[in-house]
Known about the structure:
By secondary structure, the chain is of the alpha/beta class.
Amino acid sequence: MKNFKKKYGPWALITGASTGIGKAISEQVAQQGLNIVAVARNQDNLDALQKELQTKYAIEVKTISADLSDPKANHVINEKTKELDIGLLIPNAGIENNGPFIENDLDAEYKMLSLNTTSPMILSHVFSQRFKQRGGGGILLTSSLFAYQGVPFVSNYSACKAYILSLGEALNVELKPLGIDVTVLSPGLTDTGMTQNMAVNFKKIPITKHVPQVVAKVGLKALGKKATVVPGLINKFYAWENRLIPRSWPVKLFGFLISRART
Ligand SMILES: NC(=O)c1ccc[n+]([C@@H]2O[C@H](COP(=O)([O-])OP(=O)(O)OC[C@H]3O[C@@H](n4cnc5c(N)ncnc54)[C@H](OP(=O)(O)O)[C@@H]3O)[C@@H](O)[C@H]2O)c1
């Protein structure tokens, strides 16, 4: 990643930085020599990440514990980081509810909608304004392969991720003249706490599981070069074939695969 620090440093703000894909992204951003503001709820995990990255990469790490499903918390993040010259935003925090839509708890669905869509939208808005003022920056959004079609039994989550894909595609074009790079990373199945806790037997779904480090690398390498990126050949095929066939077909296929794999 040539000139990464020069282009997007000296500071990066990463949400959901403490575990999974966000942690892998944080490590690779730290490796590039950027200082990091790491955001998540669990302070112990943030403290461990801070210690690890500061020791390994001789960078500065600040932590903010916040529940980003509360829209106000996202504005607080902006306020708390006003003094830092942040050139890279990675609003990656997300959760995944699944199960029959009508049986899922409505408050939990609303909370997921807020964390997965409202939080990245607010942060992208306020940080784009900051990036415009400083003459450039980068935004790496985390969507999902599930964004490329509706996914039965993961309905609200896949809808959230479709919102992020669409938002990022549009901002990639809209913000380019301001020197702001926007890329949407859409991982397929990735080995993190999120998928380990899902009531789905992924062995029954013909899809490859990636490690977070590979997913992070694909996303960071695409920043500034591509509007959207999907890690993995099979995942790329799933995303691509959707554009060639009637929209209802992949929805039915995923509905069949997920209902068969639910535990
Ligand atoms: N794993 C996959 O297969 C997969 C596939 C496609 C897309 N993705 C996306 O990748 C992103 C990262 O997911 P992951 O798989 O790495 O999951 P993960 O390991 O569960 O990580 C989620 C991160 O978000 C933080 N978080 C959760 N709720 C939060 C809240 N209310 N406020 C602030 N931070 C919160 C978590 O820390 P705390 O719990 O301490 O807050 C953690 O740092 C998500 O946007 C997810 O939708 C994942």
